[in-house]
């Protein structure tokens, strides 16, 4: 028998229920718990069976049930109330941006990322980068930014994880039906579906553009699995982070170059372009090509025009984590592209060229992103410092502290991660308008108004919910593995709500040291098995399919969880996703995080836990360096880096055991007559106050807007005046400076009457210098006194500069400058004289970060 076509027949919604469809196709529901409850009322069991996906639910629920709901007045009234709330949200003009920067409300910000973690029912994410991107989009919507995002729509997404009987991670992929996703075909102004084309070697590759709505934010996703393509090219968007290096470069071309072309076809012309990680850096090349081919700019003018409103965020604290490609791949995929930029192969390669110590050369996407962006940032204060050190090689003349990479510390979207019943509790004790004032410290200080016993009871309720969830997952896991009846019945004995519960959930990369707490098995056994003060541990996380050392960590923890000593004390939950994350961060007592410092760029799981009242116990890395205040949790180890990793592991593991034994466990079990651990509750409040205030994405978006987005808008407006006349003039001047820079010579003059055995605050020091400028003129440069403050390792941690005055021209092209500076504060200092490009002729310092030192 031959069927003509297979199709799913979905129920037909009545007019009264039509708003359900609009609500299902906007991810606003993911942070609106009333709407989630409404979907749940349609069919409770089906809602959970389908992974809490409204679109799947509406496609599979029985027509009979739809007909019943069409006559259910209570349901319809609730639907209409929530729909009105949604419409008010979508058209609300009283947003943070309108109130604080109304002149920027029409400015469009384009955000490119390889993955987006919006909800577990939309599995186009793998971990922290994607979750952060999803939270970024949600918060941009909340705060009223005119935001669009670009990514890829993966047919199989990231892998699903199962653990076999030996504890070894198994990877499998699910093929997704995009009809089950809340995406629609993106259409241009003429109502036509949008397709883009990129060229690989001698053939064209097509991509269909889909659209998802995240509140007010439009997310456009490119899909190559379409009939126009050959089979191998249809697979480009099959897997997130799948395949070899050649597949990766294809994906990044589709994302960067294809993403720009998609926005153009949609008549979207962003004022700011934000690359979230180096995967998207090819977008800058496409923007340069547009300027060269369409506006007839030369390459040097085009790159300055493009650089002005490009922003690059790096998330990688180790060199090996940055995307690189062999030069032969660049030749293969860009051999026909760089001539369109009207530059040579060598000039093209130099945009991302990385020379390694062994003489090997490769194309580095982070270097490309840095070279084509006026602004760059890390994702925590420490990560900014680590990134400046890592990429100083890209700015040879600069001191480390001056490398143009700042930081915006990551945060999390409160309405997604703060449990809704905890939000309801805050409604009672926080100021009436607290939801509109989460950027105010006074809002969070009101957490102290919550009675200890009430906060504790809410926490126990969340903990009980977590344990019930774990029992269900472990039961299903053991049934799948065909375990004995005894092992399956034992599930109910795993964990109880009265026992101190520690959670660890994240990607199982080796630097995160998931098994560090088991370094001394005898000692951790004694801690968890204390009959009067027991401890239980929950683990979850995936290792990359190619990361066997990470898989070994999972196996070790799983094997320990099945031993007689730990079988009711440790559990590993397979297939970590956002749903497991929510249950864990909202329900554990302590959130454990022990990466090998300084390898954690930021980390946000602890932020999610902290604002729910789970207390952080973390190495001083990533966000916790800024977050830990002595009252809101515990720090593992000390605030320094180690070259000897084995020594670091020993010191940190001892720190874990010691603090568990002396501080954490005793504090948890110190109870009053009403069985409420009041001192623990006070620590919970400190955690909620500090984390809620400092580490939410509303603060993060405020920082991005005021420190990066608005600057990019200003830079673009400045450089684009009079048909980019400034870009033209600057590119010519820049070439002149670079051609003469090596010829500059600085001859400092030391005033022999100024001799100092000691210096004190307020001391004035006078310096002068004769400077040979070659073909440059004094008004093209600025001569500065540079004063740096040294730390214990003789590193310059902070500095300031004082301009010197041009006094006269000496013989030839030598010029005399003098200046004076005053010491404003105590400390160890070094000072010298240097020359930089004249700041008044720069759009910003980042456009030409070069220095000539005495």
Q: Which helices and strands occur, and which strands form pairs?
A:
Elements: H1 18-24, H2 33-42, H3 44-49, H4 54-60, H5 63-69, H6 73-91, H7 96-100, E1 108-112, H8 128-143, E2 146-152, E3 160-163, E4 169-172, E5 184-185, E6 195-200, E7 203-214, E8 217-223, H9 231-234, H10 245-265, E9 272-276, H11 282-294, H12 299-307, E10 310-313, E11 324-325, H13 327-334, H14 345-350, E12 353-355, E13 361-364, H15 365-371, E14 375-378, H16 381-390, E15 406-407, H17 414-417, H18 420-429, H19 441-445, H20 452-480, H21 485-489, E16 500-505, H22 521-528, E17 535-540, H23 548-561, E18 570-573, H24 578-587, E19 590-593, H25 605-611, E20 615-619, H26 624-627, E21 633-636, H27 645-668, H28 678-694, H29 697-719, H30 721-740, E22 745-749, E23 764-772, E24 781-790, E25 796-803, E26 805-809, E27 814-822, E28 829-837, E29 852-853
Parallel strand pairs: 1-2, 1-9, 2-8, 9-10, 10-14, 14-15, 16-17, 16-19, 17-18, 19-20, 20-21
Antiparallel strand pairs: 3-4, 5-7, 6-7, 7-8, 11-13, 12-13, 22-23, 23-27, 24-25, 24-28, 26-27, 28-29
Helix pairs in contact: 2-6, 8-29, 10-11, 11-12, 12-30, 20-24, 24-25, 25-28
Give average pLDDT, whole number. 95
Task: Write down the overall geometry.
Answer: globular
Strand composition percent = 15-25%
Low-confidence stretches: none
- Roughly how many Å is the radius of gyration? 29 Å
Helix count equals 30
Task: Please outline the major beta sheet.
Answer: 10 strands, mixed
Query: How helical, in percent, are the residues?
Result: 25-40%
Question: Quick one: how many beta strands?
Answer: 29
Structural class: alpha/beta
CA distance, first residue to last residue: 86 Å
């Amino acid at each position: 028998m031959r069927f003509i076509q297979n199709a799913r027949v979905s129920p037909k919604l009545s007019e009264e229920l039509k708003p359900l469809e609009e609500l299902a196709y906007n991810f606003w529901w993911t942070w609106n718990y009333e709407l989630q409850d409404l979907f749940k009322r349609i069919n409770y069991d089906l809602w959970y069976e389908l992974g809490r996906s409204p679109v799947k639910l509406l496609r599979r629920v029985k027509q009979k049930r739809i007909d019943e709901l069409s006559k259910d007045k209570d349901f319809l009234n609730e639907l209409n109330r929530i729909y009105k709330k949604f419409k008010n949200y979508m058209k609300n003009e009283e947003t943070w941006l309108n109130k604080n920067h109304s002149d920027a409300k029409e400015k469009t910000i384009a955000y490119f990322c390889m993955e987006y973690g919006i909800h577990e029912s939309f599995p186009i994410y793998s971990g922290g980068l994607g979750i952060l991107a999803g939270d970024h989009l949600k918060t941009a919507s909340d705060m009223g930014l005119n935001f669009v995002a670009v990514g890829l729509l993966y047919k199989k997404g990231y892998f699903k994880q199962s653990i076999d009987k030996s504890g070894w991670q198994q990877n499998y992929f699910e093929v997704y039906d995009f009809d089950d996703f809340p995406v629609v075909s993106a259409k241009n102004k003429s109502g036509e579906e949008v397709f883009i084309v990129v060229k690989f070697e001698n053939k064209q590759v097509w991509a269909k553009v889909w659209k998802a709505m995240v509140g007010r934010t439009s997310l456009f996703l490119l899909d190559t699995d379409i009939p126009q393509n050959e089979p191998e090219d249809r697979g480009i968007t099959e897997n997130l982070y799948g395949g070899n290096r050649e597949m990766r470069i294809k994906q990044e071309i589709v994302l960067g170059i294809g993403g720009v072309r998609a926005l153009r076809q949609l008549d979207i012309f962003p004022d700011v372009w934000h690359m979230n990680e180096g995967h998207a850096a090819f977008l800058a090349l496409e923007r340069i090509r547009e300027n060269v081919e369409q506006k007839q700019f030369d390459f040097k003018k085009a790159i300055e025009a493009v650089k002005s409103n490009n922003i690059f965020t790096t998330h990688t604290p180790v060199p090996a984590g940055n995307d690189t490609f062999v030069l032969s791949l660049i030749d293969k995929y860009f051999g026909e592209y760089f001539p369109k930029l009207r530059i040579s192969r060598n000039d093209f390669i130099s945009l991302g060229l990385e020379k390694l110590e062994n003489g090997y050369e490769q194309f580095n996407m982070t270097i490309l992103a840095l070279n084509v962006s006026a602004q760059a940032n890390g994702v925590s204060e420490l990560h900014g410092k680590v990134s400046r050190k890592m990429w100083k090689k890209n700015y040879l003349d600069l001191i480390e502290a001056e490398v143009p990479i700042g930081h915006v510390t990551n945060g999390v979207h409160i309405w997604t991660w703060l449990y809704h019943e905890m939000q309801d509790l805050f409604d009672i004790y926080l100021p009436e308008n607290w939801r509109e004032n989460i950027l105010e410290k006074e809002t969070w200080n009101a957490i102290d108004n919550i009675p200890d016993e009430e906060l504790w009871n809410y926490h126990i309720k969340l903990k009980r919910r977590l344990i019930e969830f774990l029992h269900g997952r472990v039961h299903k896991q053991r049934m799948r593995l065909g375990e004995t009846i005894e092992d399956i019945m034992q599930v109910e004995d795993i964990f109880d709500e009265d026992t101190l519960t520690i959670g660890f959930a994240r990607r199982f990369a080796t630097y995160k040291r998931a098994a560090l707490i088991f370094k001394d098995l005898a000692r951790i056994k004694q801690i968890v098995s204390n009959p009067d003060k027991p401890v239980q541990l929950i683990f979850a996380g995936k290792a990359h399919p190619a990361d066997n050392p990470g898989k070994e960590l999972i196996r070790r923890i799983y094997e320990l969880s099945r031993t007689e000593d730990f079988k009711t004390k440790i559990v590993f939950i397979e297939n970590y996703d956002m749903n497991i994350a929510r249950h864990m961060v909202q329900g554990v007592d302590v959130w454990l995080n022990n990466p090998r410092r300084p390898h954690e760029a930021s980390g946000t799981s602890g932020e999610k836990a902290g604002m729910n009242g789970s207390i952080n116990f973390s190495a001083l890395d990533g966000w916790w360096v800024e977050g830990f205040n002595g009252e809101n949790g515990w720090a593992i180890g000390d605030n320094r880096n180690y070259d000897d990793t084995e020594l670091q592991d020993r010191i940190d593991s001892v720190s874990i055991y010691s603090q568990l034994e002396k501080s954490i466990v005793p504090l948890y079990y110190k109870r009053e007559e009403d069985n409420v651990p009041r001192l623990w509750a006070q620590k919970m409040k400190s955690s909620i106050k500090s984390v809620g205030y400092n580490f939410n994405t509303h603060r993060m978006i405020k920082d991005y807007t005021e420190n990066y987005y608005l600057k990019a808008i200003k830079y673009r407006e400045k450089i684009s005046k009079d048909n980019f006349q400034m870009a033209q003039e600057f590119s010519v001047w820049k070439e002149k400076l670079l051609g003469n820079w090596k010829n500059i010579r600085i001859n400092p003059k030391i005033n022999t009457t100024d001799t100092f055995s000691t210096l004190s605050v307020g001391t004035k020091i006078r310096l002068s210098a004769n400077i040979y400028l070659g073909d440059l003129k004094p008004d093209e440069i600025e001569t500065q006194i540079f004063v740096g403050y040294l730390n214990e390792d003789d590193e310059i941690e902070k500095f300031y500069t004082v301009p010197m005055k041009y006094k006269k021209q000496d013989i030839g092209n030598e010029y005399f400058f003098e200046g004076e500076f005053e010491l404003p504060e105590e400390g160890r200092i070094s000072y010298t004289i240097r020359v930089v490009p004249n700041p008044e002729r720069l759009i910003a310092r980042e456009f030409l970060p070069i220095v000539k030192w005495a």
